[in-house]
TrEMBL record:
Gene Ontology biological-process entries: inositol metabolic process; signal transduction
Species assigned in the record: Thermomonospora umbrina
Molecular functions per Gene Ontology: inositol monophosphate 1-phosphatase activity; metal ion binding
The protein, known as: Myo-inositol-1(Or 4)-monophosphatase
Origin: domain of life: Bacteria
Cofactors: Mg(2+)
Length: 275
């Protein structure tokens, strides 16, 4: 494919392809909502549903038809290797698999495009509520985020995400208790891409994430940061989503309000010191 400069910098064709792929996959799996058609167990706390496989095949086939020379990394099957192609799609075909299977309407399809190290496009599509969040490099978040009012920590709703390993889950249980009297509420909804899209849009105030896989959070991290929010590691240093983060667990704090980010860094530090 012979890419012109305009083609690469506007990202309009890539965004259109992402929309088409996500829409087709959502239409295909929507009827399976609330049905646990389990194709594999992925450990004591996670499963693979037939909806995961169906969604991924449709998305991968659609993106490959539109951009045959782009690489693709995806969660299921033979596509789980991060390639070295200049352009690489990162696909989570069903963010919130357990929620989808149990009939909990909090899940999404997440597509992110990387050019070399940098994310340049992200789309997070809710297949049930028919809402889609998307953003390209240098563009504006769609739908437009709610106004920022500088919600203080004691009034904030916090999404907490941890990896499936037992030490991460134990940390999450302890941190939830630590924060219970320090913020309005802590939610653990097991769909991090959608949660981060809601942080970018202003519906959730912040996220604390410990030891996630990059594939699960890269699109949402891009939505928050590129729309003017703040993403830092657990020590408070800025953290930009980049392809090379895939080889280790990703931990961060994300919010639109920088004061809330700073307060949460302090709370994580204090909790870790007390544990």
């Amino acid at each position: 494919m012979n890419l012109t400069k305009e083609f690469v910098t506007t990202w309009t064709p890539q965004l259109r392809a992402a929309h088409e792929a996500a829409r087709a996959a959502a239409d295909a799996i929507r009827g399976q909502f609330g049905q646990r058609f389990i194709s594999a167990y992925k450990g004591p706390h996670d499963v693979q549903l037939t909806a995961d496989i169906t969604s991924q095949k449709i998305i991968v086939d659609s993106l490959r038809e539109s951009f045959p020379h782009y690489g693709i990394v995806a969660e299921e099957g033979d596509h789980d290797e991060w390639g070295r192609e200049e352009f690489l799609w990162a696909v989570d075909p069903l963010d919130g698999t357990n929620n989808f299977g149990y009939g909990i309407a909090h899940c999404a399809l997440s597509l992110t495009l990387f050019q070399d190290e940098s994310a340049v496009l992200a789309l997070v599509a809710d297949p049930l509520a028919d809402r889609t969040f998307h953003l390209t490099q240098g563009g504006r978040l769609i739908p437009a985020p709610a106004p920022t009012y500088g919600v203080p920590l004691h009034r904030a709703t916090l999404s907490l995400v941890t990896g499936y390993a037992e030490d991460g889950r134990d940390w999450g249980h302890g941190f939830t208790g630590w924060m219970s009297s320090r913020c309005k509420r802590v939610v653990n909804m097991w769909a991090p891409a959608l949660d981060l899209a809601l942080v970018a849009g202003g519906a959730i105030d912040a996220m604390v994430c410990r030891d996630a896989a990059l594939l699960d959070v890269c699109g949402g991290m891009f939505l928050v940061e590129e729309s003017g929010g703040h993403v830092v590691d657990l020590h408070g240093d800025p953290l930009t989503v980049r392809r090379s983060l895939h080889d280790r667990p990703v931990s961060f704090i994300a919010a639109r309000n920088p004061s809330l980010v700073a307060d949460l860094v302090s709370e994580v530090r204090a909790y870790n010191a007390s544990a």
